[in-house]
Each structure stands twice: as structure tokens, then as C-alpha cells.
Design a protein that fits this description.
The complex is a heterodimer. Chain A contains one helix and 28 strands. Chain A is mainly beta. In chain A, the strands form seven sheets. A four-stranded antiparallel beta sheet of chain A has the order 3-2-1-28, with no helix packed on it. In chain A, a hairpin with a 6-residue loop joins strand 20 and strand 21. The longest helix of chain A is centred in the N-terminal third of the chain and has 21 residues. Chain A is globular and about 45 Å long. The two termini of chain A are 23 Å apart. Chain B is α+β, with helices and mostly antiparallel strands. Chain B has one domain: START domain (Alpha-D-Glucose-1,6-Bisphosphate, Chain A, domain 4, 2-Layer Sandwich), CATH 3.30.530. A seven-stranded antiparallel beta sheet of chain B has the order 1-7-6-5-4-3-2, covered by helices on one side. In chain B, strand 3 and strand 4 form a beta hairpin. Classes of the chains: A mainly beta, B alpha+beta. Chains A and B meet through loops of A and loops of B. Chain A: InterPro entries: Haem_d1_sf, Host-pathogen_enzymatic-act, WD40/YVTN_repeat-like_dom_sf, YVTN_b-propeller_repeat. Chain A: Keywords: Signal.
């Protein structure tokens, strides 16, 4: 009995793995259109348009890629997408203005971590029960959230306080409040959890935080109003979009965030995502309602395709080998 | 906590939770002016002197140093005597482009809590196309905005401000040349 159960699990895992590795997919959130579109990364083709509740902003996948969780600040909700069926399964009422979202798979149960812009809090949601299980105070207007599953730490960017809140992922314990620029908005954690990169649209720069000392260890100058970050798989390049001057900047994390290139994209770029092979990047141009495809070898824009009105966030579907166990 | 205090707090919340949680809005208004881009830029490029061409700006007070634009900030007094402050973000005379943002919001002046705007001139057949666009948020950024501070109120107010401004700009530049 137990044996066959294990075999079934293995079969399903293999099936999922082959499915996910074959399809390098991007999910793009379109806030004004209230849609999530699924793009085949290699062809740039739109595979699906998923209708979601109004005003979607943030998106995070479960570790196995089977679920996507989407925040809806104006509804006080998080919707749950089944990525195989490509449709919304249900919406969870979390209250407030849920904005940024991350998934913690590091313990026996999956938790959603949601920043609440209105209540200045980090909301813990159990997606199985569809219920809020805890709410911890952050700074003002919390936006970006990053989870270090292994080291059990959570990082929240507080846009209006100019700080990063560092919390324990397991106990309601505050480790640190780090002064980090004028209006820290987006976060990107290195794979080891050793470095946290912060986009500060108020100070027009990217900061590196050493997570062991909680000290700001580097500054990188980018264009006007940086709003989103992405790392290449080898972590040799940090990609930053700047909304104010329509640029994608490429920085070198190991060389004090030295700027390697600046690539002009469409108007008011926000979300950025890197293909799993590290060769291409996608940028959501909010004003133009387009996605720019960037070649990361030549730093040229290869093409633009249409998104829906209000495209802001791009998240690649995780591969099975990236999934936390 | 007594009920009166709670009610006061609840009323106060949308103001305290001042931010950009709601869906950002955008508009783009254009007009074609019978003059060269340089001639149009000579007027709109003086950032602090918008009162010279915008019919619903009663007064503009420039401040802050900017060698090329003449000022890096401006306070606009609108028709209802309310004032909004704006600051210059980008100034590119060669591209005939400038970008600015709302510095001090005033919902009595414009029911918009934040905006960043671009003005871009491009040459057309013998004339100039002026494109004036903005990204902005409604006046009340809470989840239950009253009608006069919702998305539509913000869109209507800024659209009207841009349209009347472009008409005024066209009139001013074409009468100059």
C-alpha cells in the first residue's frame, strides 16, 4: 500500500517535471485589464488569457508551479490559479490592501506571505484553509516581500518608512529594521540568502544588503525610478527596470553593482523576468501595453509583443528542479 | 476604544494609508500645432512659465534652479484658487521632451493623489505633434473612494486639464508665429 503510494507520487513528480521543464512559461499580470496572460518564453506566443478579479498586482507560484497566487489590493483578496487548468479556483478574503506576495514552502505546510499596504502589516495566509492565520506589523506601505526558506527569514520593503523589516519565518520575532534608501519598493534575494537587493525608486538606486550583518554593503546607480529586479540564474547579472526613463539596466552584483549596460525599452517599464537559460529577459512596458524581449548576450531589444492594459508584473513559472521540497 | 474614536480612526485611515495601492491610471492627449518643434519648445520648455499658455492656470510661480528650463519646480494656481506643486524630473531639449511629477498634492485643486507626466514634441508635416501624457492615482487611494475622488474623477480632471492646456498652447504658439 505504502509502496504504491510512493510510486504514484514519483510518477506524478516525473510527469510534472517533464511538463514544467518542457514549457518555459511566463505569467504576466495586467492590472487594468484584470487578466493574467501566459506566454511561451521561447516563441513569445500568448498561450492563454486567464480572467481574474479586478486589479491584480502581485503574483507568486507554489514551489511545484501548480498554483499561482495573485493579490488584488482593491478587493482585499488573493486569488488562486490552477496552472494546469489555467483558471481561478477561488479567492481568499484577506482584507486590507494585499500588494506583494511570496510563498513559503520551507515547513510542513505552505504559507502565503502578503504585504498589506493599508494596514502596514505582513499577512500570513494558509491557502489550504483559505484563512488569515497571523498578521505582523511592518513599516509604512509595505510592498516587496522576499522569503529565505532555508534560513527561515522574511524581508519586507516598507516604501513609506524607507526601511526593510527582517522577520523570523517561524515565530513572531523581529530580527532587524534596516534603513534602506528613501522608498524601498522591490526586493530580490540571492539564492544563498546572503544578499538582498533593494530597488529604491525614491533614491534612484539599487542597494545591496548583507543579510548576515544587516548592513547596506553596496549602492548601484540606475535610471530614474527603479521598480523591479531580477537575477540571472548564475547571479552574475542583476536586471533593473526604471520607470522614469524607460530603461533596463544590467548591473554586476559581484563588482559593486557596476553598470554593464543600459537598454532602452517601452514606456514606464515595471516587471522584469529572466528566461531559465539566462539568455533572454522580458520587460513589461506599462504605458505602452507591450512586453520587450531582450537578448542578454548582445543587450539588444529583439522584439515587442502586446500585453493587456496595465501589465506590471512578470513571473516565470518555477521549474521542478527549483522547487523547494 | 469608544465608538467615536473608532469612527474617527476609520475615517482617518485612507489618509494615513497614503499610497499607491490602487490601479494606476493613464491618459494621453495630443494636438497638432502649425509651428516647428523648436517654436513650440520655446514656449513649453520654460517650465516655470505655464501660466503664459495654459488657460486654466491663473498663476505659476517658478522656483528651484535649472539652467535650461529656468526652474525645477512650479506652483500652479488653478481657476478655483487652489495650488498644486510640481517638479521637473527630466529635461531633454534636443529630444523636445520633458517629464515632471506632482510634488505637493492638493485634492481641492485636482482630485489626483499622485501623477508623473511627460510632454513630447514630434515633427509632423510642417508642424508639431504635442503629446501630453500622465500616469496617476485617484484622489482617495483607499478601497472605498467617494465619487468625487475615484478613478473616473481623476481621469476626467486631468484629461480636461491637458486638453484645455493643449488648446491654449496651440493658440499661443500659432498667434506668435
Amino acid at each position: 500500500m505504502r509502496h504504491s503510494y510512493r510510486q504514484a507520487i514519483m510518477f506524478i513528480s516525473l510527469l510534472l517535471a517533464s511538463m514544467l521543464v518542457n514549457a518555459d512559461e511566463l505569467y504576466v499580470i495586467n492590472q487594468a485589464a484584470a487578466t493574467v496572460i501566459v506566454i511561451d518564453e521561447r516563441t513569445g506566443e500568448r498561450q492563454e488569457t486567464i480572467a481574474v478579479p479586478p486589479g491584480p498586482v502581485g503574483l507568486a507560484f507554489s514551489g511545484d508551479g501548480s498554483r499561482a497566487y495573485v493579490t488584488h489590493p482593491e478587493q482585499g483578496q488573493v486569488s488562486v490559479i490552477d496552472t494546469a487548468q489555467r483558471q481561478v479556483l477561488r479567492s481568499i478574503d484577506v482584507g486590507g490592501m494585499p500588494f506583494g506576495i511570496a510563498v513559503d514552502e520551507g515547513t510542513h505546510r505552505r504559507l502565503l506571505l502578503v504585504t498589506d499596504w493599508q494596514r502596514n502589516a505582513l499577512v500570513f495566509v494558509d491557502p489550504q484553509r483559505g484563512a488569515v492565520i497571523d498578521l505582523l506589523a511592518t513599516g509604512d506601505a509595505p510592498t516587496g516581500i522576499a522569503v529565505d526558506e532555508r534560513n527561515r527569514r522574511l524581508y519586507v520593503a516598507n516604501r513609506d518608512s524607507g526601511t526593510i523589516t527582517v522577520l523570523s519565518a517561524d515565530t513572531p520575532e523581529l530580527f532587524a529594521t534596516i534603513e534602506a534608501g528613501r522608498a524601498p519598493y522591490a526586493l530580490q534575494l540571492s539564492a544563498s540568502g546572503g544578499r538582498l537587493y533593494v530597488a529604491d525608486p525614491g533614491g534612484n538606486e539599487v542597494l545591496t544588503i548583507d543579510t548576515s550583518s544587516h548592513a547596506v554593503s553596496g549602492h548601484g546607480e540606475v535610471g530614474h525610478a527603479p521598480y523591479a529586479l531580477a537575477l540571472t540564474p548564475d547571479e552574475q547579472r542583476l536586471l533593473v527596470t526604471s520607470q522614469g526613463d524607460d530603461m533596463l539596466s544590467i548591473l554586476a552584483p559581484d563588482r559593486d553593482l557596476e553598470k554593464l549596460a543600459g537598454i532602452e525599452v517601452g514606456r514606464d517599464p515595471e516587471g522584469v523576468a529572466v528566461a531559465s537559460n539566462g539568455q533572454r529577459a522580458w520587460v513589461a512596458n506599462w504605458f505602452d501595453e507591450t512586453l520587450s524581449l531582450i537578448d542578454l548576450e548582445t543587450y539588444e531589444e529583439l522584439r515587442r509583443i502586446a500585453c493587456d492594459p496595465g501589465c506590471r508584473t512578470i513571473v516565470p513559472v518555477p521549474h521542478q528542479d527549483e522547487a523547494g521540497s | 476604544m469608544n465608538k467615536k474614536l473608532l469612527a474617527t480612526l476609520v475615517l482617518f485611515l485612507p489618509l494615513v494609508a497614503h499610497g499607491h495601492g490602487p490601479t494606476p491610471q493613464k491618459i494621453e492627449e495630443t494636438i497638432v500645432i502649425d509651428a516647428s518643434p523648436d517654436a513650440v519648445w520655446a514656449v513649453v520648455g520654460k517650465f516655470g512659465e505655464i501660466e503664459g499658455w495654459h488657460p486654466t492656470v491663473k498663476k505659476s510661480v517658478p522656483s528651484g534652479e535649472h539652467e535650461q528650463a529656468g526652474a525645477s519646480e512650479r506652483d500652479l494656481t488653478l481657476e478655483n484658487d487652489e495650488v498644486v506643486g510640481e517638479s521637473l524630473d527630466q529635461y531633454e531639449p534636443e529630444q523636445h521632451h520633458l517629464a515632471y511629477r506632482l510634488l505637493r498634492e492638493n485634492l481641492e485643486a485636482l482630485p489626483v493623489s499622485f501623477y508623473s507626466a511627460d510632454m513630447q514634441l514630434t515633427a509632423t508635416d510642417g508642424g508639431t505633434k504635442v503629446s501630453w501624457s500622465a500616469r496617476f492615482y485617484r484622489g482617495d487611494t483607499g478601497n472605498f473612494p467617494p465619487e468625487d475622488l475615484n478613478d473616473q474623477a481623476a481621469i476626467d480632471a486631468l484629461t480636461e486639464f491637458f486638453q484645455s492646456g493643449l488648446q491654449g498652447l496651440k493658440k499661443r504658439v500659432e498667434s506668435d508665429t
